[in-house]
Design a protein that fits this description.
- A three-stranded antiparallel sheet has the order 1-2-5. Strands 3-4 form a two-stranded antiparallel ribbon.
- It has 200 residues and is mostly helical.
- The chain has a domain of 119 residues: Intergrase catalytic core (hpI Integrase, Chain A).
- 45% of the residues lie in helices and 10% in strands.
- The two termini are 43 Å apart.
Length: 200
């Protein structure tokens, strides 16, 4: 996601950063108005969505929510808005909502240039959930931020990368690195590893 955001120009950079930094649905991002952003306190209030160019309600009751955002995203949004106090956060030159088809085409152009596989805008949502889960954010908070109705749905959005799996496996390894390097002293019954005595 960082590669895509770094490579994206102008408004697309801020849009993709918002999707990646909040996990909101793309229609929810297209439906954001300037007054939905509280950049002083770092909150985005999600109150509506856009479907086929028209403003509609959010997908579920849990979709009405406030998402806390980090200072970097806050700064990107502030720079993007400038002095604007009203209107859509993301819009075409004529002030209409961004078309999902155009946003997806722009995303896949970037993915092609980066030599990455094609993906849809929803991949940012899956990526955000996976990042939050991998960093140990409480499940109820993840569910609240992304607007899921239950934790089971949140779990289906979680995908762990192989390097993260290896890091976790090393962190919770049964045998310490010293044992693998042959540095633990031998006792009468083999290698001593007293740190495991209590659990054994």
């Amino acid at each position: 996601m960082r590669l895509i955001i770094d490579a994206a120009p102008g408004q697309w950079k801020v849009l993709f950063a918002t999707l990646a930094g909040t996990g909101m649905r793309c229609g929810e991002a297209f439906g954001l108005h300037v007054e939905d952003l509280d950049l002083v306190n770092g909150h985005i209030c999600i109150r509506r969505s856009v479907w086929e160019g028209e403003e509609v309600t959010v997908k579920t009751k849990q979709g009405y929510r406030a998402v806390t955002i980090d200072p970097i995203l806050t700064g990107l949004l502030a720079a993007h808005l400038g002095d604007r106090k009203a209107g859509r956060v993301f819009q075409t030159r004529t002030g209409t909502p961004i078309c999902k088809r155009n946003a997806r085409r722009r995303l896949n152009e970037l993915l092609r240039d980066l030599k990455l596989p094609k993906a849809g805008l929803h991949a940012f949502r899956h990526g955000r959930v996976s990042m939050l889960q991998a960093m140990g954010v409480p499940g109820d908070l993840v569910k609240e931020w992304v607007g899921h109705s239950n934790l089971q749905t949140t779990s289906r959005y979680t995908h762990f990368q192989d390097n993260f799996r290896r890091q976790v496996a090393s962190h919770v390894a049964l045998f310490p690195q010293a044992f693998m390097a042959g540095k633990l002293p031998d006792g009468p019954n083999g290698p001593n590893f007293p740190q495991f005595a209590a659990s054994a």
